[in-house]
Amino acid sequence: MTDLRLVILDVDGTLIDSQDHIVSSMEVAFAANALTPPPRDRIRSVVGLSLPVAMGVLATDHPDRADALVEAYKHAFSTLRDRFDGMVLSPLFPGVRATLDALVADDCTLLAVATGKSRRGMDHILDLHGLRGVLASVQVADDHASKPHPSMIEACLRETGIDRARAVMLGDTSFDMEMARNAGVAALGVSWGYHPIDRLRAAGAIDVLDRFSDLPAALDRICPAS
What we know:
226 residues; alpha/beta; Rossmann fold; DNA polymerase, domain 1; six-stranded parallel sheet; 11 helices; 47% helix; globular
């Protein structure tokens, strides 16, 4: 019997390029509350955290406005999503779809998601890109403590029945790498996301991929199919 392995995927900055959507929504949220939006790099640095946690980091000088900022962000995000083509706002990065399909077809790899997105936001991405039949487990911020808490990875392991020694987390932020370390699973970073390569390595990334299509070879090095 094939010894299955599990790849747990982050979403924003790893699978989809949603940077402009996220940054624009954050800027609108702060402006709607008569506050100066944080610099773009500052906003980028918190992507991956659950929204209330991320907003708490960005609004440290205005803790009394954090809840209002969260609601304003949600409104801005959904408004932009309804106004523009989702494929433009949240396209898959090059090589993602073909690589995921190839991994599913090899009969020894299961795929899961662990994301700071809400359930509503993740449902939109699943439908937009036809990913519902590809993923064995989908974990979202609504049901778990924010990254880097290991709760989402632990849920993926429970739902799939895969041992943590046969699991790999793929993400673009130090929060993903730290979550993997806290859960006792291997971590792979990607170079095209929100955090720099040196930060990913410092947080525990075994390797950092430059192309999504490099994922199968990296998996074979870390967690060989058997």
